[in-house]
Amino acid sequence: MPERKSFKITVQEFEFDLEDGNGQMIPCKLKEMTGKERDQYMNKIKNRTILNPDGKSGRIKDYNGMFSDLLVMCLYRNGEKMDEKEIQALPASTQSELFDEAQKLSRLNLSEEDIDKLKKN
Fold it and tell me: What's the domain range around 58?
């Protein structure tokens, strides 16, 4: 008989500081998206890709807002969501690192192999 599992229903968070141009630290956090938010995000990004003949996502046709579309849904500063204009003004390296962390939190960076493993467990 399979082992009984339990799942958390609390949203995961990743806390960090952003340093402004004056050396001041700004408390921030990334929050895991809810299922509804994830689905909204996935619907938004599907329009960025061109499907391969087999129906799977192929190449990206529009990169505008690619990082900020995710971050605007889960990046908070002083308890308030950051807006897209503020996020797009962040250095590209900072956006990239935050994007990677946001993907991990909401499990958006899983490979097909990872998904298969989760389905088996």
Answer: 13-111
**Does residue 120 belong to any structural domain of this protein?**
no
Query: pLDDT of 47-72, one tens digit each?
Result: 777 767 776 666 777 778 889 999 99
Q: How far apart are CA 59 and CA 71, in angstroms?
A: 22
Model confidence pLDDT, tens digit, residues 85-97? 999 999 999 999 9
Number of domains in the chain: 1
| Domain presence at residue 6 | no
Domain harbouring 80, CATH code: 3.30.2220
- Distance from C-alpha of 104 to C-alpha of 88, rounded to nearest angstrom: 20
CA dist 80 to 76, 108, 110, Å?
5, 23, 28
Residue 56, class by beta-carbon neighbours within 10 Å (0-12 exposed, 13-18 middle, 19+ buried)? exposed
Beta-bridge partners for 31: 13
